[in-house]
């Protein structure tokens, strides 16, 4: 039986890169592979600056930690790559958490986990609440590596969110996200605009 702290402890271990701890937790309670948070368990995972919501799974944590190896372990153990939380976000949405200036941001690892998740069945155009796709989130968070990977794997830059905004528009607007005006974020924004312009042909 999964108790309330178990899944949160596992997610925190994954987010902190404590693979040995995470593997021991899974060995002790194999049902954590498919366990989902409840509304009363929503919390903030400090190591990855990630807010987790009801319905989130350990695979969401592996995604926002950019941990392809642990994501593979979870998938091979039966995790659902299309599991969605109460906001409709799947693990592929979770991998867009972070951005320039955040402690765990790593574009190379981010691209790798995107590629793996899509390889095993994630939909690069899956809409979360508000018709927000992984590409919308990657653009808004100024993650050019994620944008590049998603575009190469079939993300549609012309899809609109419920405000009618495409990735092209989000790339050019101020995001409102903390740190979006930093030099690093502005450099990422320029790269993203270039990637989307090339995708438009």
Which short descriptors sum up this protein?
globular, 201 residues, 47% helix, two-stranded antiparallel sheet, mainly alpha, Serine Threonine Protein Phosphatase 5, Tetratricopeptide repeat
Question: Would you summarize the structure shown here?
Answer:
This protein has 201 residues and is mostly helical. The chain has helices spanning 4-15, 19-28, 58-64, 68-76, 91-94, 107-119, 134-140, 144-152, 167-172, 183-200, and strands at 43-45, 50-52. The protein has a two-stranded antiparallel sheet with strand order 1-2.
The H-level CATH homologous superfamily, spelled out, is Ankyrin repeat-containing domain
CATH class: Mainly Alpha
Shape: globular
Strand content is under 5%
The amount of helix comes to 40-55%
The CATH topology turns out to be Serine Threonine Protein Phosphatase 5, Tetratricopeptide repeat
Alpha carbon gap, first and last residue: 53 Å
Structural class: mainly alpha
Number of strands: 2
| Multimerization state | single chain
Major sheet: arrangement of strands: 1-2
Output the radius of gyration.
Answer: 16 Å
Stretches where pLDDT is under 50 for at least 5 consecutive residues are none
Task: Write the element-wise H/E pattern from the N-terminal end onward.
Answer: HHEEHHHHHHHH
């Amino acid at each position: 039986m999964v108790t309330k702290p178990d899944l949160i402890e596992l997610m925190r271990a994954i987010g902190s890169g404590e693979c040995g701890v995470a593997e021991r937790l899974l060995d002790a309670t194999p049902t954590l592979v498919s366990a989902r948070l409840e509304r009363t368990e929503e919390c903030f995972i400090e190591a990855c600056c990630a807010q987790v919501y009801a319905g989130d799974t350990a695979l969401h944590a592996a995604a926002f930690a950019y941990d392809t190896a642990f994501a593979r372990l979870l998938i091979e153990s039966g995790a659902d790559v299309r599991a969605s939380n109460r906001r409709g976000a799947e693990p592929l949405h979770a991998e867009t958490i972070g951005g320039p200036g955040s402690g765990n941001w790593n574009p190379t690892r981010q691209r790798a986990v995107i590629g793996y998740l899509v390889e095993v069945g994630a939909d690069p155009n899956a809409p979360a609440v508000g018709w927000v796709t992984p590409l919308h989130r990657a653009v808004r968070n100024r993650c050019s590596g994620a944008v590049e990977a998603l575009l190469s794997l079939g993300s549609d830059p012309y899809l609109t969110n419920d405000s009618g905004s495409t990735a092209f528009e989000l790339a050019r607007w101020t995001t409102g996200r903390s740190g979006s005006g930093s030099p690093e974020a502005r450099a990422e924004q320029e790269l993203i605009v270039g990637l989307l312009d090339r995708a438009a042909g």
